[in-house]
Amino acid sequence: MVTQKNRDIRLKSRPVGLPTLDNFELVEGEIPHLGSGQILVRNLFMSVDPYMRGRMMDRKSYVPPFQIGEVLQGGAVGKVMVSNGNGEFAAGDYVLGMDGWREWFVSSGAGLQKVDPAIAPIQAYLGALGMPGLTAYAGLLRVGELKKTDRVFVSAASGAVGAVVCQIARNKGCEIVVGSAGTDEKCAYLTQELGCTAAINYRDCGDLGAALADAMPGGVDVYFDNVGGSHLTAALDNMNTFGRIVACGMIEIYNATEPPRGPYNLANIVGRSLTMRGFIVLNHLDMLPAFQRDMGEWIAAGKMTWRETILDGIERAPEALIGLFKGDNFGKMLVKLAEENGG
Amino acid sequence: MVTQKNRDIRLKSRPVGLPTLDNFELVEGEIPHLGSGQILVRNLFMSVDPYMRGRMMDRKSYVPPFQIGEVLQGGAVGKVMVSNGNGEFAAGDYVLGMDGWREWFVSSGAGLQKVDPAIAPIQAYLGALGMPGLTAYAGLLRVGELKKTDRVFVSAASGAVGAVVCQIARNKGCEIVVGSAGTDEKCAYLTQELGCTAAINYRDCGDLGAALADAMPGGVDVYFDNVGGSHLTAALDNMNTFGRIVACGMIEIYNATEPPRGPYNLANIVGRSLTMRGFIVLNHLDMLPAFQRDMGEWIAAGKMTWRETILDGIERAPEALIGLFKGDNFGKMLVKLAEENGG
């Protein structure tokens, strides 16, 4: 039945600055042998996420670095094509795990979870219903301690995480929710579809701090930071006393080739009694049940939407990852590896 | 009875960079008229504190800026020389308030509180038993959420706030408490008298981050930041996952004449799930009873000590303030304005 080859993407060299296609290698090989008790999975969608840039560097971090010559890793949803006596997974099941960057894999099932295609298209489990969505949920509600009286600013607000943050803030009753994005089209999406009260195109707004002050004359109580750098500086200048900065990511500096310049106004953290708190979603998995319940309700009520940018074929995965840092994605960036029937 | 003149210090011009004596003006005048129901107070000690540098700038902050030509303000302890029918204060009472930078003042008593010279020398109410002490207490225990298993790093550790932080950490059971200071003599004081397990002379240690790694091979769980700048950068490189940075002050950058460079490694806040939280002691006055109870017990048990650097005469107050930024003080910097008998 399985006569195809398997293809995967490996780290060929460590990038300096923005990754290039040369840093990746597409390798063709055999589909791995299916042992007793194992399942053979055909990946259908894989995720590319900004945090992967950090794993391409050889440094100590909360996840070990990718190794040169080895297959990359990342979120993926696939379909079980064959179950060789596995007690948990049967052929036809859809599974979510960290076995991206390859077309096929075999597994004992450890680390995989079933996902239900009846609730949402399966690729949503890599986006709004998956880690990016939980990142938004845990970050805003637990790390940011959101109150409905808060005025909220979200950077990269049309992205996989930011778009969910905007909608959760609105769904929780926040009246002022402002997002930033890099095109007028994305900004229109923020105000017209995500419920933002204003949007800032950071690429043509002039001084970002002044633009933020214009958009939020009452100041910022919660800043959900996906960007760092100039966005963080602008936010620090507009934070209200006792404001909270949810430090989710700093995509602006991930490709820095020299030590990035930190915000000149960090002392505002003292003078305005601010809290800046970083987090990793893996430490908040206990919120999954509440997240899934709330998201289910919001989706059913038409109060949660998302967009995807999908590139076709594993050979385009490096391009997809690189595109994240250029803002090529509109919403969640995905790579489609096969049709739903596994073909 | 009162035949003396009154002298006060006024802001003559706003400093650029480190304040100079030219920024201050000593003015001699009459002792103010004592109205009905008022008290006449002779200040005995006044405090100079790093936060005063911020108030010399014309900018919005948590306290309004000092105005050119007006008498400066700050903590002071004085003695009531005459009470003209004031129901609360009698001649001979010692009072603490914010009427520093002047030798005499009259008051209705509003904003003043009595202090007890039997518990400690009255100037201690400007230091370990006053705002600096409460800053240490609230910052470490509430803002920093100290646990006895924490490894603690304190910058400016021999200063008015830092010295109390070190001792509270030790008194609360922390086994690893490391402080930084600017002379070998101060470092010896940290380890020999304040209970620090190690001390770093930041002026001659070479790379501060490396020195901190040597002093705290298990990393830093709580960093009490009085300095900002290079100290904050060094701490960020040594923080443990879920570590907390208590942002109390950033004296290194208070005199910056151009926008200071923020830490290049601020992204560690994300990757290591750090919390950096600023605070102003005025928002934690509810902790005063607990603070006074604990400090009383620690002092009685010989587990709380402090040092003072005292300059004599109001004319030296500008020099005292400037000296803070050069590390001239060993412990709390004070200016003595009169003898305890008011003479």
Write the layout of secondary structure elements.
Two copies of one chain form a homodimer.
Chain A: E1 6-11, E2 24-29, E3 39-47, H1 51-55, E4 76-83, E5 94-97, E6 104-107, E7 113-114, H2 131-143, E8 151-154, H3 160-171, E9 176-181, H4 184-192, E10 198-201, H5 208-215, E11 220-225, H6 229-236, E12 239-247, H7 268-271, E13 275-278, H8 288-300, E14 308-312, H9 317-324, E15 332-336
Helix pairs in contact in A: 2-3, 5-6
How many discrete domains of chain A? Answer: 2
Mean pLDDT of chain A: 95
At the first level of CATH, the class of the largest domain in chain A is Alpha Beta
Predict the CATH topology of the largest domain in chain A: Rossmann fold
* Rg of chain A computed from alpha carbons, rounded to a whole number of angstroms: 21 Å
Biggest interface reads: A-B, 34 and 34 residues
Q: Give the tally of β-strands of chain A.
A: 15
**Oligomeric organization of the protein chains:** homodimer
Helicity of chain A, as a percent range: 10-25%
The total of helices of chain A stands at: 9
Q: Main beta sheet of chain A, described?
A: 7 strands, mixed
CATH architecture of the largest domain in chain A: 3-Layer(aba) Sandwich
Q: What is the general shape of chain A?
A: globular
Structural class by sheet pairing and helices of chain A:
alpha/beta
Output the helix-strand order of chain A: EEEHEEEEHEHEHEHEHEHEHEHE
* % residues in beta strands of chain A: 15-25%
Low-confidence stretches of chain A: none
Cα end-to-end separation of chain A: 11 Å
CATH superfamily of the largest domain in chain A: NAD(P)-binding Rossmann-like Domain
